[in-house]
Write a structure and sequence with these properties.
By secondary structure, the protein is mainly alpha-helical. The protein has a single domain, classed as Tetratricopeptide repeat domain (Serine Threonine Protein Phosphatase 5, Tetratricopeptide repeat), CATH 1.25.40. It has five helices and no strands. The longest helix is centred in the last third of the chain and has 30 residues. The protein starts with a helix and ends with a helix.
Length: about 110
């Protein structure tokens, strides 16, 4: 499958417009399409992870961050200079999200006792 980078960039721009207009579901759909194609840039991963975090949807936040890490590991192997710092940032965000998920699970478990 050939990936149209111009189309992906247009999707990101349109998603930004949707976000500004408060149409989050439409923005999510466009960002999700880009990450499903393995978009090689941080924008849709950053935005989706933030949106899902704000929606308290940890499973989707974690899924997006894991996908970003896979993509940025590839970018780093391609020797793109921006790859490594962004890879570390995504890994750090994933670690925090996983920690939050663990803490919430512990709280839920203690409330059930």
């Amino acid at each position: 499958m050939e990936i149209n980078e111009n189309l992906q960039a247009e999707r990101n721009l349109k998603a930004i417009e949707f976000e500004k207009a408060g149409e989050i579901e439409k923005a999510i759909a466009l960002y999700e399409e880009n990450i499903s194609e393995g978009f090689k840039g941080n924008h849709p991963y950053d935005r989706l992870a933030t949106i899902y975090k704000n929606l308290i949807d940890l499973d989707n936040e974690i899924r997006v961050l894991e996908k970003a890490i896979i993509v940025y590991e590839e970018i780093t192997l391609e020797d793109r200079l921006e790859g490594l710092p962004k890879l570390f940032r995504f890994k750090n965000r994933l670690e925090k999200a996983l920690h939050t998920k663990t803490q919430l699970a512990k709280q839920k478990k203690s409330k059930l006792k």
